[in-house]
Amino acid sequence: MTLLRSFISRGYYGPEPLKGHGPHRYVFELYALGESLLGRPDRDTLVKTRPRRLLNSLDVPVLARGRITGISER
C-alpha cells in the first residue's frame, strides 16, 4: 500500500525547496508490517487516512522500520 502524498496529489515528485530559502530536510519512513493491509474490508478508508493516524491505529505487528533523512537546497 502506498501512502506517499504531496500537496499536489498522491505520489512523490521529489524535493523542490524554494530557491534561496536555505536547506530543507526531508524524512522518509518505511514500515514492514506482519500482515498485508490490502485484503482488509476497510482498505479504501486506510488508503485515505493520513499516515500518522494510520500508524497510531494499526492492529498488526510492525516487524521493522527504517528512516532516511535527506537535505536539499536550491
Question: What does this entry look like structurally?
Answer:
The chain has helices at residues 43-48, 51-57; strands at residues 24-33, 62-72. The protein is an alpha+beta fold and 74 residues long. The protein has a domain at 24-72. The protein has a two-stranded antiparallel sheet.
List the keywords.
74 residues, alpha+beta, two-stranded antiparallel ribbon, 2 strands, 18% helix, 28% strand
List the helices and strands and how they pair.
Blueprint: E1 24-33, H1 43-48, H2 51-57, E2 62-72
Antiparallel strand pairs: 1-2
Q: Which percent bin holds the helix content?
A: 10-25%
Rg is 15 Å
Sheet-strand content, in percent, reads 25-35%
Shape descriptor reads: elongated
Total helical elements? 2
Helix/strand structural class: alpha+beta
User: What distance separates the N and C termini?
Assistant: 31 Å
Averaged pLDDT: 80
- Largest sheet composition: 2 strands, antiparallel
How are the strands of the largest sheet arranged? 1-2
In the predicted model, the low-confidence regions spanning at least 5 consecutive residues are none
Query: Quaternary state, please?
Result: single chain
Q: Brief description of this entry?
A:
The chain is of the alpha+beta class. The chain has helices at residues 43-48, 51-57; strands at residues 24-33, 62-72.
